[in-house]
Fold this protein.
Amino acid sequence: MISINPKKFKAIKNKAIPNPLRPKFRNKAQANIYFLSQRKVQGEKKDQFKQKFRMIAIISIVLIGGYYLSN
């Protein structure tokens, strides 16, 4: 069995929680991959919304035009 030697353990002197480090601001080439992927997802959502809006607008124009032409 593995025996643990208690003399090897060191007591923690500073028990305060350290402040989080400031994020490093880098140029675009070295940007964090998380933020790049977030920007890509947001761009895809905007494109998808634009495409759906166009389709709804086209369908509604065709339906309204068909209604007026039939009367």
Notes: The chain is about 55% helix and 0% strand.
